[in-house]
Every structure is written in structure tokens, then in C-alpha cells.
From TrEMBL:
Keyword ATP-binding: no
Gene Ontology molecular function terms on file: translation initiation factor activity
Source organism, top-level taxon: Archaea
InterPro entries: eIF2B_alpha/beta/delta, IF-2B-related, IF_2B-like_C, NagB/RpiA_transferase-like
Protein biosynthesis listed as a keyword: yes
NCBIfam families in alphabetical order: PRK06372.1
Family: Belongs to the eIF-2B alpha/beta/delta subunits family.
Organism: Picrophilus torridus (strain ATCC 700027 / DSM 9790 / JCM 10055 / NBRC 100828 / KAW 2/3)
The protein's name: Translation initiation factor eIF-2b, subunit delta
Keywords: Initiation factor, Protein biosynthesis
Amino acid sequence: MNVKDLYDNKASGTAVAFKIIDFFSHNDIDENIIKDLKKYYFGIGLINYVCDSIISGRTKNLKEGIEKHDKMAIEHAKPLFNDSVIGTISFSSQVLKAFISNREKIKSVYILESMPEREGIDFASLLVKNGIDVVLLHDASIYELSLNVDFCIVGSDTVAYNGGLIHKNGTYPMALSMKYFKKPFYSITISEKINRNFLESSYKNIKNHDWNIDIPYINRFFDYTPPDLIDYYINENGFVKPSDVNI
């Protein structure tokens, strides 16, 4: 593995974080590389946590601790599944594991396409291979999704200091629509994704990716969901209100 392999827009934040751990377990720590990775992946809390841990020398059982919390969060999510129709977006490894381990209690899953990388399609294909019924929708079809599901559950890229959520573009309107329909909206996460230095105003620093057009554009891959639109986070501690994530 070389440094270029650490820059991967299509991989999940967890997959990239584990790549970074593996890379620096076999190579000398370079603070300039770490600094650039934090800038490139700004808004992905687990990568920020892993980079800070490597710089500070807190690497013993780092990967194992993350995996342990991941399994605990998935276990805590089990009560949600009860012959349910569920909505989601993007490709969260935690959501995938939760769905597969509870497949017999899922009626169907509505998944947004998740532009521009369209990872929702890959997610849908994996669910189908695991025997889960899927309905795929364009990102603009959030009303249709919200009308048909019992609840939505998404992953997380960063849990902000105030309990807000940074996640794939489309998460905010999904949560807003669920609030209108008075249906629950959850995010499955781990405490390592909490960034106590991330404020709502930090959102503007998330990378604006290239878009091959000749007019001014904004092409961020993530949006911000305020804490009052989130019913609960589910992490290694169980169901946690957004106001309590930093306690």
C-alpha cells in the first residue's frame, strides 16, 4: 500500500480509517501526511479520530476498539427491526451489518441513489444478494420514501459537538421529511465519530469536489442535519439523544 491508496472517495470512512491505521503500522509517522489526510477528509469523524490517535501515539488496540464499539452499536439497534419498512441513504457499513443481521425482521428497504457516487445502488445490490427486498429511488424522491417507510436509519460521518450530524448529501432533507411525517429518524454511529471541535459553522470547510463544468458550483458530498431532526443516535452505549452525545 502507498500513500495514494489512502485517498479514496468511494470507500466508506471506516474502510479508509482502517487503511490509515494499517499504513502507519508499517511506515514511519509523517505529520504532513496526517495533516493532509485530515484536511482532505474533513467532516469524517472517524478518520479525524484515527489521525489524532496516531499522532498522539494512542494506537494500541485502536482498530480492535473501533470494531468492538461497532458490534455493540449494531447489537443495540436490534429492537428497531420488527417486520419494518425502512429508509436509508448512501452506503454505511454499520447500517449494512445491522440490516443483514436482522434481515428476517425487515419487510423492505427504500434506498436513495446517493449521487454523485451513486453508492446507494451498490448498497441496494448487496442487500438483494442477502435476500432483502429493496426499492431504489432517485435522490429527489424523498417524499415518496418518507411516505412509505416506518422509520429511517442512516450511518454517520461526524457527530458534531452540538449533536448535529454530518452525513451524505440528502440526509438533511430526509430527516426534515421524516419530521413532517412524524416518523422516527435514527443514526447508527460510534463514539469515535464524535468531533467535539466540529461546529455547525465548520460545515463550510468540507471539501468542495471538482465538477467538470464552466459555471460556479458547489459539489460537497455531505450535508448537515440539526440535532432537533434526529430522534436518537445508536452507539455502543445504546440509544442516545443528540443532546447527550457529548456527556
